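Reading a protein record of the kind used here takes only a little practice. The record below shows the convention in full:
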Amino acid sequence: MYEGQLKYEGKAKRVYGTDTPGVVRIDFKDDATAFNAQKRGVIEGKGAINNAITAHLYPLLAEAGVPNHFLEQISATEQLVREVSIIPVEVIVRNTAAGSFAARLGLEEGLPLAAPVIEYCYKSDELGDPLVSDSTPIAMGWASARELAELNSLALAANSFLLGFFSARDLQLVDIKFEFGRLPDGTILLADEISPDTCRLWDADSGERLDKDRFRRDLGGVEDAYRTILKRVTS
């Protein structure tokens, strides 16, 4: 069932076909990139950690009313998911000022936001995933107005659930990037992964960064930070 040709290889994952229609196999890699792949490296064990975190969180999100493509974890670095056509719009939800958002607005990192901020990026490695307005996906035909509203609703619902989940484990969810895909019948599902690669997570007490910013900013202790997140998520 799990055999199949390579369908796609991205910066962090490989996607293979299976002999089950509508099901693909994802293999998580240890490769790490930052600044639109201008910085590259390897985080030992990252693939297995991100696979385990995603496999733990996606069933909980489904129970919380956020449908997603996850089916089952089949090995340390692999999982089976529903095959979807990825919508080329990354939906970023920000709870605290950090990263490019803080830099653009001249804000101090760590400033709490009065309400979650939704931003959109066009999913394009060649163009560096540029920030776009909420009218651009509709104008370009990437998503209809109804679909964009659904992306917003699902992203906010997932963010709300994860805020509470992480808080209970002494983690602050600073921001998170979501990707979505369509089934052949048009149903929209949360796709990709949820991990320290796709969200900023800080220790709630010390403010220590426990995500890919440790790699981006050469802070050291990257592997230990990822293992800390895995331990808290699954404990």
